Amino acid sequence: MTTELYILTLAALLQVVQFCLYSVTANLQVGPRTAIGPRDKKIELTGTAGRLQRAMNNHFEGLILFTIAVVVVTLSDQSSPLTRTCAHVYLIARILYVPAYVQGLAPWRSVIWLAGFGSTVLMLIAALV
Q1: Helices 47-75 and 108-128 sit at what angle, rounded to 10 degrees?
Q2: Which residues cross the membrane (predicted)?
Q3: Comparing C-alpha atoms, which of 9, 2, 4, 1 is closest to residue 87?
Q4: What is the mean pLDDT of residues 12-23?
Q5: Is residue 89 predicted with pLDDT exceeding 80?
Q6: Which has the least CB within 10 A, 36, 42, 90, 96?
C-alpha cells in the first residue's frame, strides 16, 4: 500500500469519527425521537452539533478531491516525496480543522482548510508533470 493510500484510509476513518461526534451531539440536541423520525421537516442544528455537522460535510467535499488525487497518483505510479508530504499535510489539516471549526477559530479555520485544499491540488498537479 502506498503512503497516499494509507493516508486516504486514515482520512476515511477520520470521517467515521466525525460522523460519530456529529451524531452524538445532534441526538443530544434534538432528542432520540426526532433523530430516529422520518425528518420530513428540516432540522437546523445549532452550536457544537451544527458546527460538527458542517465540518463533517466539509470533509466529505474535501475527501472527494483528495481521493481523486490519491487514485491518480497511485494508478499512474507517480508517488513521490512531494505527494507523500502533501498527503500527510492533508490529513493533519483535516484533523486540525475539526476543533478549529467547532471552536470558531477565525481566521485559523480557513488557513487550515487552505492547507488541506492546497496540498490536494498540489498532488494533482504533481501527477501531471
Answers
A1: 10
A2: 6-24, 60-76, 111-128
A3: 4
A4: 97
A5: yes
A6: 42
Look up cell 452550536; give the residue. Answer: 47
Which residue in this structure is represented by grid cell 440536541?
29
d(CA 95, CA 113): 10
pLDDT-based confidence at 66, cuts 50/70/90?
A: very high
In this predicted structure, the answer to whether residue 110 has a pLDDT above a threshold of 80 is yes
Residue 18 CB coordination number (10 Å):
22
* C-alpha Rg value of the chain to the nearest Å: 17
Q: Which of 48, 52, 125, 63 is nearest to 94 (CA)?
A: 63
Residue 11, burial from CB neighbour count under 10 angstroms (0-12, 13-18, 19+): buried
For the domain spanning 3-33+45-128, the CATH number is 1.20.120.550
Q: Which residues lie closer than 8 Å to 7 by C-beta, 6 or more apart? A: 70, 87, 88, 90, 91
Report angle CA 97, 102, 104 to the nearest 5 degrees: 90
Predicted TM-score of the model (pTM): 0.93
pLDDT(12) > 90: yes
